[in-house]
Design goal:
- The protein is an all-alpha fold and about 120 residues long.
- The protein contains 6 helices and no strands.
- The longest helix has 21 residues, at about 95-115.
- InterPro entries: Prolamin-like.
- Pfam families: Prolamin_like.
- This is Prolamin-like domain-containing protein.
Length: about 120
Amino acid sequence: MAKLSTQISMLFVVVTLVFAFVPVFSVEEVEAKTLWDTCLVKITPKCALDIIDVVFGNGIISDSCCHGLVGEGKVCQDTLIKYISDRPSLITKETLYLKKRDDLWTHCVSISKTV
């Protein structure tokens, strides 16, 4: 029961972060929002936070999160990072974040191929 409560709490944190970082969606972005929602459901809350921390901070990602990220596909990762990096407070470093996103993807693909 405690594990379920922790998972629900982590999911709440991720959803809160998403709404804090993601700009209000316009009608043209309904398809992108659907993809975003699909990705959030499939990647564990801890892995989503780890991915965000690697790209926007100096975090590290576990091999299991790399496997999950690669399993979901590059589109999910690109969507997650692009929406966050488009925030006005982060846009000045968007190029850096997109490079870190691509470096993370390359790292995770290499991890997934070795196991």
